[in-house]
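Hey all, sorry for the wall of text incoming. These are the three entities for the joint prediction.
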Amino acid sequence: MVGPPQTSFGQARRGSRLLGSGRGAVAVSTASTIVVLGALAALFLLAPGSAVVRHTFFNPTDMWKSLIGDPRQGYYSVGEALWLNIRMFLAAEVLILIFALLLAVIRQSDSPVMFPLRLVSTIYVDVFRGVPLILVIFAIGFGVPALNLPFVSSQSAAMYGIAALVLSYSAYVSEVYRAGLNSVHQSQVAAARSLGLSHTSALRHVILPQAVRNIIPPLLNDFISLQKDTALVGILGAIEANKAAEIFSDTVFNYSSYVVAAILFLILTIPLARFTDHLIARDRRRRLAGGIT
Amino acid sequence: MSQAPADPDAVRIEGLRKSFGTNLVLDGIDLSVASHEVICLIGASGSGKSTLLRCINLLEPIDAGRILLWGQDVTQPGIDQNRVRRSVGIVFQAFNLFPHMTVLRNVTLAPVKALGAPRREAEQEARALLERFGLLDKQADYPDRLSGGQQQRVAIVRALAMRPQLMLLDEVTSALDPELVAEVLDVIRELAGSGMTMLIATHEMSFARDIANRVCFLAGGRIVEQGPPAELFTRPQDERTQRFLRRITDAGRL
Amino acid sequence: MRRIMITAVAAGLVTGLAACGSSGSTASSGSSASAAAASCTNAGIQKDLYTKGALTVATDKPAYPPWFQGNNPANGKGYESAVAYAVATQLGFKKSQVKWAYEPFNDSYAPGPKKFDFDINEISVTPPRAQAVTFSSSYYNVQQALVALKGTTIITKHAPADLKKYVFGDQIGTTSLAFINSQIQPTQTPKVYETLNDAKQGLQTHQIAALVADTPTAQYISSSEIKNSVMVGQFPSTGEHYGLLFHKGNPLVGCVDKALDTLNRNGTLAALEKKYLQVYVSVPTIKP
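and here's what came out:
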């Protein structure tokens, strides 16, 4: 026997139970954030070793010297060296986007003709996702010159670095592409094919544009990660920002150059992160057209 | 893909069998459709109407039997499936417009890329079609700005832009709000009136009665009964047909 | 403030040592000298040690020849190993009381207390470095030298104008880079390798025309390690020298300097150089 319908669902309350949602809540959360950050800053400034750490890591004179460099003294400009990182990741990113797409499309294909390629691609992705990037850089950077092949063995350290970055990152990015391809609903494929578009045409005009839009956040995430991993190419002797920082620090016995390098990397990556947010927001509205499935 | 004048049938299906895994969906379909004929497929959900349509335009591979379009067996190996699909237009229940393209581009994409039509020509034709169905002012909009009825009409225009000889309509109004159904049905009516050969899977019984030359009732993967709508709806022979129609009438849909 | 204090103490120590040295090693010439002598006995320095009863000496891995041998600092062979044990003996330690620690070069100058008494690792003394750590006096005066593969152009063409055209390589953290850039001034940026092994690899794979390292290292590479390499020559001295590295303000440096001074004047250092650094082989000097 069902009772009378519930007519009262409790008193309406403004905002959340704990803090509410008015101006008071904003003030409390701001205050507590300040308190926590302030406590961390105090911990840093009042620790017994603070003065030494500040001199060793945050010394303005050394930061400036490392920023502009002085080869006669045995160290290079961290700022100028960053330019090498930038060139490396720009070149690598273009190649990665292309190569990874190729890998993903191969792996997604159905036809039996593609089986050998599919197998090779799967092994490739497994290997290069499994081996740490630093080992790949080492293998390429020291192995290829040792082979003494014409032209191929006489490239600069940066070129080997780019090659290693491309080989390694393409494996990861191809998986991101695959996720993107899978995220496009099968009905889109059906619609495109039923219009008589070939597999390639459908992929190029209908599937890929949608797939890529869906995976822009993880793609840009990988790009930011790539920017930082260019620092590893320093082990081949290329004077990129991190290496320049290390040279300065070993020469002068002060670590402030690393802080400079870190700040420069942040200046590179933070705008890209904001741009990613902007792209996501702008593209959301087009995502859900096409009706129910 | 030209019409073979020797065979008057636009579509001839013989002994079509199709399973999805262990699930037998089509259990021996035999059907002939003459040119300019309008066939309505009715039946409960899961009776195989959608699958049948998707087999005809080769979106699904078949397990047994064959399908002849204008006298040519399109289910034999070696057939260029893309060419077949260019002559057969299909519209889905879920519209499936391409969300990253404008309405105009949705319509012109296949003519340009699959038929090789010059872009300007394709756009002219597209605009003519859009105007014919009252959608010209939407040509620059993206699908997410259109109502369901408008999107479905665009989907029909998109299929028509390929100048198919045969149109397959798969429950094209089932996903629409009732007040938007009429505008789509009007489009289909006009198409039928212009002589297009059509196979229409639908739940809209009164519409089927109006427009069809022949109605086929599917149940359990077979065509249980078929005939002119006047006969099938008023004097169904098979018990299953009678049961189905009674349920429809009770639900007030007939 | 702290820096001024330390400089003052260091200045005081140096003055005291100078007074000691000028009046002979063991003869006392006044209360200050005897007081200084007394505090450098084994008992007197215990309070300054990292671990009481032991002298903890640090170096990097791998420990390269001819500074060490067999990658084992504890065997007493190799110039730096021998010097360390000689200093230990001067400070009254038995051989078994010398403990070796591993300290990567990059960490050796990190601020804060160290896990060793001193670090011996071919570290050149420079004024900026002396602000972060305390150095002993010199235990070896350094000259930079060039190693190249046999049959390469640099073997014959190394006049100052020619030198500028080559790609040089060196190990990070050595003063070789400063030397290359200030003295040789090449047109192409030199390569800086993470480890000496990488630099040697770079030479063997023709990534660099020549490797710049201190003379003993270069000597060892060309005679024993890379068979088809040769030492092109060494450059004139620029006053560079190696010192033992202590944490900033470690008072132990005073007694160590005294020990080094003794070893210098009694010929021990010279004998060790002769034994391990093949100084008797005359090395051609080339101009940068």
